[in-house]
From TrEMBL:
Family label: Belongs to the free Met sulfoxide reductase family.
UniProt source species: Candidatus Bacteroides avicola
Gene3D superfamilies per the UniProt record, alphabetical: 3.30.450.40
Protein's name according to its UniProt entry: GAF domain-containing protein
UniProt xrefs under InterPro entries: GAF, GAF-like_dom_sf, Phosphatase_reg/MetRdx
GO MF annotation: an example: L-methionine-(R)-S-oxide reductase activity
Domain GAF: 32-160
Length: 160
């Protein structure tokens, strides 16, 4: 089952729309947060070949690294700091076409060029974590990524 998750071919939107029901099936019945986040990160990395994809979870007043795929990452991020901390503080998806132009960007890797961060929200709308996706290409993320990754984050929250 797991090796069937790789979605290839088609445009970006088609790959997201094919991946979403596969993720729903993969996550069905599993209530462990770490297991679900790990499988979601792996599925996104395999499907799109992102440079880095992973999750940070809110622990008190900071984001703490969770399951991810890619190079070594920053372990803790303060609220309002960098792209992840800003997305958490503002409770909104951030698409950053050039991370070097983002004030206060935290460079976990000098190879990261663009980034998208999507909040994970509980039923009350409070942020409990973020999905962070980095690319080694400038302006690699757009409204399609934002909309589809938000759907994936909603699915993850529904499964917990």
């Amino acid at each position: 089952m797991a090796e069937d998750l790789l979605v290839s071919g088609g445009c970006k939107e088609e790959r997201y729309h094919t991946l979403l029901p596969q993720l729903r099936s993969l996550l069905a019945g599993e209530t462990d947060t770490v297991a679900n986040l790990a499988n979601a990160a792996a599925a996104l990395k395999e499907t799109f070949g992102f440079f880095w994809v992973g999750f940070y979870r809110v622990k008190k007043d900071e984001l703490v690294l969770g399951p991810f795929q890619g190079p070594v990452a920053c372990t803790r991020i303060a609220r309002g700091r960098g792209v992840c901390g800003t997305a958490w503080a503002e409770n909104r998806t951030l698409v950053v076409p050039d991370v070097d132009a983002f004030p206060g960007h935290i460079a976990c890797s000098s190879l990261s060029r663009s980034e998208i961060v999507v909040p994970l929200r509980n039923a009350a709308g409070e942020v409990w974590g973020v999905l962070d996706v980095d690319s080694d290409r400038l302006a690699d993320f757009d409204d399609t990524d934002a909309a589809c990754l938000e759907k994936i984050c909603n699915l993850l929250t529904e499964c917990l």
